[in-house]
């Protein structure tokens, strides 16, 4: 906004602004997180469903905490391991405040396990700072990301009238 006049003189079209605002990756893509879960399991790590805290069997799903249908976001903070049954029953609803609170230990444990290496950690916190409220670019605490994720879930629920699970 500070450069509005300068941009106006440069003749930037409305279409150019629109193109900058479109989602870069509008595909429902959980491959990176699935690969990470598979690598952890191959390394004999027990992966649990964040919603039930039960160990996952051979088949599992990667769930978007904030449903992709309402907010196409494939950031690592938004993707969790869960059972197929839980993910299919959740559908395009957001977790209730109580469900998130109950799942907090599993969510944070998963993040710490999956995104602990420096490169993964950097990407995790960069994505969080770019898409969640109240996360600064130098944030390094998973608990702060969880708090911001709760705000995002509540905001999506209230603005888009998304049902709870």
Share in helix: 40-55%
Note the overall shape: globular
How many strands, which pairing sense, and closed or not: the largest β-sheet?
2 strands, antiparallel
Distance between the termini: 39 Å
Measured on Cα atoms, how large is the radius of gyration?
Answer: 18 Å
Low-confidence stretches: none
* Discrete helix count: 7
Strand residue content: under 5%
With strands numbered from the N-terminus, the spatial order across the biggest sheet is 1-2
Strand tally is 2
Number of domains: 1
Structural class, from secondary structure content?
mainly alpha
Average of pLDDT: 88
Order of helices and strands: HHHEEHHHH
Please provide a brief summary of the model.
By secondary structure, this protein is mainly α. It has one domain (26-160). The chain contains 7 helices and 2 strands; from the N terminus they run αααββαααα.
Structure in words:
The chain is mostly helical and 165 residues long. It has one domain. It has seven helices and two strands. Helix 5 packs across helix 7.
Layout of strands and helices, then pairs:
Elements: H1 4-10, H2 14-21, H3 31-42, E1 61-64, E2 79-82, H4 84-90, H5 97-114, H6 118-131, H7 142-160
Antiparallel strand pairs: 1-2
Helix pairs in contact: 5-7
What descriptive keywords fit this protein?
165 residues, mainly alpha, two-stranded antiparallel ribbon
